[in-house]
Amino acid sequence: MEPMWPTMVKVEEKAIELLKLSNELSGKLHPISQRRIAMLLRVMNSYYSNLIEGNITHPLDLERAQKNDYSAEPRKHSLQREGRAHIEVQEEFEAIVRNAPDINICSIDFLSRIHKSFYEKLPEDFRTVRSTSGKTLIIVPGEVRTTDVEVGMHIPPSYTSLPSFLRRFETVYAPDHLGGVKKIIAAATAHHRLAWIHPFLDGNGRVVRLFTHLYLIRADLDSNGLWALSRGLARRREDYYSALEAADEHRYNDYDGRGNLSERGLTSFVDFILDVEIDQVGYMSRLLEIDGLLERISQYVDLLAVRGTLDAAAKHVLGDVLLRGELPRSEISRITGKPERSARRITQALVAEELLSSETKLGPLRLNFPMKAVPYIFPSLFPANA
């Protein structure tokens, strides 16, 4: 698995740029509004991570799955469960990483917990895999593989050697032992090396991408959940696989590092990942510029007003909630300039459209982003044909 690091001088500048852009993004919105957008982005991350694996689930079907509204068609039903599992596991482990700073996210115990939590939520038809000999193998949630496998052109380490490789992985990439910029580079480097080890019988791609997402949180690089790597990887899926394959290669010559694998290939992979991350942070930064975001919300309300669904004054309520994070119901009349009864109707309509919600019947109102509104408020978050 050596070398464990890319050629640092070739990637450090991009790592520093990513840190700067991520810090700028994290301060754009009120923390409560950030959390509401982060909830939407978990759905987005599930969509794209599963899309990379060739599993396509309509964003509306992911939203329905979160409401226990499953399709009667078996394949669509299974894909909905897979998508919901990804969303729930991401939320579960984000809380673990944020609330347990001492946990070693590079340990096999932690990685197995991710795999176990994900696969326990999947339907039975997602828990089998075909071996190269055609034999059906049962995937045990959280279990490190007990057989040798082939992944395309890549032959991962023998299952008997996995403990040694995973111990080395943990020792080198544990984020608590690394400085700022090196931690950023480690997130990208560990992404490949974990995929190369291929510790589980199946589900490694999704576990690796979830692990990288969690590593970025531990590196204070996720901008409070306001961007995700999988969207960029899915949009450049072929480049992603090509970069993985290049980092799988053995050392080319005496000028290609001193390990068994290619240092040039690993450096190219890390450079690619940093490019994708910078692109995604930039995209979300532009999307969350306050003036543009308020304008798109206003246009969406105008569209619903033309359809007779909302009062046009509702745009002022949504804009106020975005900026303040939450809003007492008693202020709706003042914000809209409407009598109390009309203000209540506006509130009821916004809740009915799922643009606002509250934890209690009379509690303060917070933003929601229902999937039907996403193409208008967050253009290109999902592919146009989705």
Structure description:
- This protein has 386 residues and is mainly alpha-helical.
- It has helices spanning 12-26, 31-52, 59-66, 74-99, 108-120, 162-173, 180-197, 204-218, 229-235, 237-248, 263-287, 290-306, 314-324, 332-336, 340-352, 374-377; strands at 128-130, 136-138, 356-357, 366-367.
- The chain has a two-stranded antiparallel sheet with strand order 1-2. It has a two-stranded antiparallel sheet with strand order 3-4.
- Helix 2 (31-52) crosses helix 4, helix 5 (108-120) packs across helix 8 and helix 6 (162-173) runs antiparallel to helix 7 (180-197).
- The chain starts with 11 loop residues before the first helix and ends in a 9-residue tail after the last helix.
The termini sit apart by 39 Å
CATH fold name of the largest domain: Fic-like fold
Q: Report the total helices.
A: 16
| Beta-strand content estimate | under 5%
The number of domains is 2
Task: Decide which structural class fits the backbone.
Answer: mainly alpha
Output the strand order for the largest sheet. 1-2
Rg calculated over all Cα atoms: 23 Å
What do the pLDDT scores average to?
95
Instruction: Tell me the name of the CATH class of the largest domain.
Output: Mainly Alpha
> Which term fits the overall shape?
globular
CATH superfamily of the largest domain: Fido-like domain
The topology string of helices and strands comes to HHHHHEEHHHHHHHHHHEEH
Main beta sheet strand tally, sense and closure: 2 strands, antiparallel
Helical percent range? 55-70%
Low confidence ranges: none
**Can you count the beta strands?**
4
Which CATH-level-2 architecture of the largest domain? Orthogonal Bundle
Oligomer: single chain
